[in-house]
Inverse folding.
């Protein structure tokens, strides 16, 4: 019994120290709408046992709304604060190990903006400034996506169309398609038993659920006249609700991992 109590107390102390608290005075409320064709990817490392992660999710939502939803959020449940929970994915763990665990990997919530630079745990002013900076970088590639959902087979087919917008871009590029789900009501530390989890990474669309697939596939766009069309099919898990799911398409530099463009569409696309 004594060992159990000591373990619980130790975990609480660890959680309080590792989760980053928020000062309301640090919020940045005024934004200029981005004059850019670029969207920005915000990947939030989070977990159900993180006490301050609801505030991080609120900050991500605020950034989305401030930038007219040109900020696209993916919630990655990984690391110590997600250990043993049902929202951990193999892909999410791979991203956490690649981009964050080489640091201390413990300060949550944490965000990665366009997979460029450091993973930020100082989420108030820092997330805001990193997002603002990302919008200043021109995007040299466009991405259009269309989904078609088969309710009987629970399969979603995704067609992605990639095109260069300038001949200056010489990057080797990859296309990554991620599935997210929102409106999941479940436990969250400091959020209660019926907390609303949004943008939860569910998986990566590809041929196999293995390490190479988590990084997408190489796409060749050799000239500005070229258009690359990629089609994929994915069978949804029986417990997922397709009406609450999105597909996030990411074009990124194969060498640096920096995101060049990102788009998001609903699984059930009625357009």
């Amino acid at each position: 019994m004594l060992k159990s109590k000591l373990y619980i107390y130790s975990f609480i102390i660890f959680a309080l120290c590792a989760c980053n608290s928020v000062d309301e005075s640090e919020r940045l409320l005024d934004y200029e709408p981005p004059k850019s064709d670029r969207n920005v990817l915000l990947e939030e490392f989070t977990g159900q046992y993180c006490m301050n992660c609801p505030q991080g999710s609120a900050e991500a939502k605020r950034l989305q709304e401030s930038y007219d939803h040109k900020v696209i959020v993916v919630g990655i449940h990984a690391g110590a604060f997600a250990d043993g929970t049902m929202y951990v994915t193999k892909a999410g763990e791979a991203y956490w190990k690649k981009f964050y665990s080489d640091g201390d990997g413990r300060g949550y919530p944490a965000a990665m903006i366009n997979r460029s630079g450091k993973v930020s745990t100082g989420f108030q002013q820092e997330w805001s400034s990193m997002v603002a900076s990302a919008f200043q970088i021109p995007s040299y590639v466009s991405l259009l996506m269309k989904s078609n959902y088969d309710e009987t087979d629970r399969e979603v087919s995704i067609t992605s169309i990639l095109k260069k917008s300038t001949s200056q871009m010489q990057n080797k590029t990859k296309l990554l398609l991620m599935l997210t789900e929102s409106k999941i009501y479940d436990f969250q530390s400091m959020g209660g038993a019926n907390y609303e989890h949004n943008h939860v990474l569910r998986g990566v669309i590809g041929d196999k659920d293995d390490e190479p697939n988590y990084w997408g596939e190489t796409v060749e766009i050799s000239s500005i006249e070229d258009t690359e069309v990629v089609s994929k099919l994915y069978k949804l898990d029986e417990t997922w609700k397709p009406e609450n799911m999105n597909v996030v398409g990411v074009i990124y530099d194969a060498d640096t991992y920096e995101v060049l463009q990102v788009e998001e569409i609903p699984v059930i696309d009625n357009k």
User: Anything to note?
Assistant: The radius of gyration is 19 Å. The chain has two domains: 2-17+39-135, 141-266. The first helix runs from residue 2 to 18. The domain at 141-266 is CATH 2.60.40.10 (Immunoglobulin-like).
